[in-house]
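In the design runs reported in the main text, the only information available to the sequence generator was the tokenized backbone. The following block is the verbatim input for one such run; it is reproduced so that readers can re-run the procedure and compare outputs position by position.
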């Protein structure tokens, strides 16, 4: 399904990220709870005539 709010890049780019998780054992109906976080950096080319520039953004996530 494609939404109008979907974002895509038609240029070269790259990213790197670090993901960390911590599990907590429970003595109840739920066996385990896991907290996950992701932190990274995303960089892409901006295709502007006569300019060779790049744009970048931080990527974060907490689950």
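Verbatim output:
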């Amino acid at each position: 399904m494609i939404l109008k709010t979907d974002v895509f890049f038609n240029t070269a780019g790259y990213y790197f990220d670090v993901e960390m998780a911590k599990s907590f054992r429970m003595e109840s109906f739920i066996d385990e709870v896991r907290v996950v976080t992701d932190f990274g950096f995303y960089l892409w080319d901006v295709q502007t005539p006569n300019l060779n520039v790049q744009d970048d953004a931080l990527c974060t996530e907490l689950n």
